[in-house]
Batch of 3 targets.
Target 1
Amino acid sequence: MGARYTRNLPAMALGIAESSGIKAPSVLSPKKQAMQEIDSPFPIPDSRLPAIHVVAGVIRDARGRILLTRRTAGRDLAGLWEFPGGKVDPGETPEQALARELHEELGIHVGACVPLIAVPFAYAHKRIVLDVRIVERWQGTASGREQQALAWAPPARLSSYSMPAADRPVVAALQQPDRYLVTPEPGADTAAFLRTLGVALAAGVRRVQLRCRTRSSEALRPLAQAVGERCRAAGAEWLLNADIELARELGAGVHLRAAQLRALHERPLPHSVPVAASCHDDEELALAQALGVDFAVLGPVATTPSHPDRTPLGWDGFARLRERCDLPIYALGGMTGADLRSARGHGAQGIAAIRGLWGAEDRGQRTEDRG
């Protein structure tokens, strides 16, 4: 049965919707779903096939549930659940295409929409850019006018639905933080370090990596415990750089260096804590995905002070690598808060930064690429 709903929703900044944290049993493991598809005028270089532009909408009802539709028999990826929408026809704007598709498919009329993320993805037989908009206002009774099944899913249960690979980064964009703070190397003044971390947390940072390469595990433990306490108090997720054993001891997540991806044969920590990885190319992204990490950092996107001679990926290069990986991926290297919209526009979960986020407010500084 379709839900009848007419309401103005508050504008949403590019970022996340808070999840309740409820875990639902997975219908099908995302790691077992083949990556197959993509479409759009968004430029992705070095491609044999033109990308198809597909637009989709995030539609909420009065209870905050999100509408999913199931692909019908005889179509690509039949039986999988997706955010409703369709191809942008020649001469249409994405907004016009979304309004047309949602009326044709669901019988609803949509008003204002705001961009969430545009995911470039290469399936075995086609390439798309899935351009997703948050529908802030809509009217009518949603029903499957093309005989497709509908489901109103609580946001925290979205990941339990079997979805096409291109839709999975959309779920992450709705549920997870759009900023990933990488701390600078801690100095001797621990109090100052913790004060600055507190400022970043107060400004809304909800995912933090404690990066320290100059201390042993024993020497790092007191600072790591203090960082963990502050992150937990703020409701933020925290990870240790590289030190798997200390992370296991403290109940923290771990951020793996690229070299560790080649040495490990299985996920080093349980799924109750996050595991992330630094990646620089498609091989490392594939290793990260095979290992079952929760998200990756990819860069450098821009030139950085610490590696001025390293050729940056640029946004086109980032999008090209993003095409065959359905992990949430943060853009790293020369990033500030001002880059968040560009990051989301090229399929990134958001930005990872040191100086661009350290101290909370974006002062226009550029972070060093030290992944």
Target 2
Amino acid sequence: MPNGDPAYAAENLARIRRRLRRECGMPPQDALSVGMRTIAFSFYFFAMEIILISGLSGSGKSVALHVLEDRGYYCVDNLPVDILGGLVDLLQVEGYARAAVAIDVRSGAAIDTLPEKIRILRQAGHLVSFLFLDTQDDTLIKRYSETRRRHPLASDARTLVEAISEERCRLRPLAGLGHHMDTSGLRAAQLREWTLQVAAAPAQEGLTLHIQSFGFKHGLPRDADLVFDARCLPNPYYEAVLRPLTGLDAPVIEFLEAEASVLKMRADLHRFLHDWLPAYRLDNRASLTVAIGCTGGQHRSVYLAEWLGRQCQRLVARVLVRHRAIDGTGVPPFPPA
């Protein structure tokens, strides 16, 4: 964007006034008043950092939004898609550099225009990240039963199960726009940590590689594009001294790296991604999630995910490593497998 250009300033002022009047229903005099304050910012255009959050109702969007608010983001929940551009313009006028916006199925048919809205924001120079939160149906049903809250699509003629199914169908096209995260079985602390991990990742075009460990005993993660099974490898669990530890701990790492089968599997995984990541990039994917599982998600899969994440930093610009069965402190939230 040209800074200090009078023609650009005038064009920006007119554009914001029109959008305020059209999308926000603001009277002409108020639109003029707000619009005039944009002149100074027109001379010093800055790209905003914008995190858009969507996903199934009950999947944790509020938790993600709150942690970003605590980190200084200007946060808006349940924003209609139609006024997203107007909101960004207003926040620029007020000088906000970072914003997080939650958009859900209550936007109705307009939700289908979100990909185009994101494209326009990026074309304008803004750094836009997209986070889609997903959850297994049985987890959602349990959460709604515990909180006794009403699903936004539920009605006298539509059961909770039917409402969840309808919402999943409507939002399915959005799942591939950016970071796809399955929150089933996650603690709130884990979701907060993973959200901050997404916020810290550079918001730029190209493929983001997610590598996550999980335990098969807890179920397959919904967000996985590729799943690899490490249960055939020697299990540190059967060593009493290693049982309470995780794949992040040096004794477990030493145990696993002494096994030829572990070294071969990690080399094979790295070779597979080295050979096939270019093809996924050419497919214009925003993200690729590789899930590595062992029995409990505590030892073997954690080690492999960490090692593979370090190696893949040479292959793609953004690599995010996360562990479903241990939290940020390395403590298993589930009983050891």
Target 3
Amino acid sequence: MLSSQKFNSGNKLLYVQALRGLAAMMVLFFHCSLNSKAYFNMRPLLASVWEYGWLGVEFFFVLSGFIITYIHLKDLESRKGVAQFLRKRFIRIYPIYWVVATIMLIYYLFIKKENQGVTVRLSGMGDFIYLVKCYSLFPTSPLRKNFIDIAWTLSYEVWFYLLFAFCILLGYKRTSYFFIIWGFLIVFKHYTHIGDFSPFLNFILNPMILYFLAGCFIGYLSKKGKASLSLRQFVILIIIASMSVFSYAALSGSVLEQNRWDINYYYLLIVLFGITLWMAVSIDRQSWLTAPSKKLLLIGDASYSLYLIHPAVIMFCYKMAAYLTSRFAIDVSSMTVNLIFIGTMLMATLAGLLLHLIVEKPLLSLLNKNKTFSWRLPWIGKPL
């Protein structure tokens, strides 16, 4: 709702941060809904809505490309700061991931032994290499996936960060050509099916990367001050976004369930996500609305911790609920399933917030204390 009581976010993109929190909750709703079906063969209230929560993952990719470009556009233009960029990305991704991965590794080694058909063990060099791949977020074989369910998305994040570091060395102009060629190759491969036999090509030319590239474009426009909209333009974009949503809903009923990975949906979602992000930046810049909820902003801050820990919490909650309903002969009615669904959502959200506040935030603060480097890279002459 428009309000005369405006806020001043300064350089902080509060509505973008709020979208980050919403995307995290979408993924959480999605996985909770799936587990309700898996454990009790019943779906919670509004399950047909929660089933589209996986769109939060796609939006995270767009958001990642936006944030990286928005923050590091100067690095692209100056062709400096590649080591500092890699250091920041490493600290952001790996330490808290290793904490969660180690907890889950202990669980799978000593309690469950297996995750969705993937055996987790330490009995030879092959197992050691597998664990190194899991901990480094190197893409694993489809026959033996990472024991952290959501790690495949982080593998794409790391790949994109490495390529963005390479782009810093290339410079801004060459990067724009590189991104155009990269996007063309992704689309070309999809329609021609050249290289479908190659896991490497399937990874580096996955249509998911189009989301990153779209986010980079919005980040560039925003950083250059081209994301400010008049109220009339804002309304027009809302209409276009609404049409995209209705088109998506109309198509998804007959096609999406059969082929979620159809590239035509990528095009449609890129338009929808791009408009959503663009409008959020414009709201932040022009302060049309009151500041978003502090609770939602906190979830946005904790989104990575929440994303990492929620599958484990959901699994624990549903296993415990299945055990208790069986042990005490509790009738599993629709109300029971909804109560379990709500309780699990609250527990997973609380776990993500606690992980962020108690572990992730202090860890980032500690690792970011020394922000300068004295060592040199062989291709860069000055200390970083």
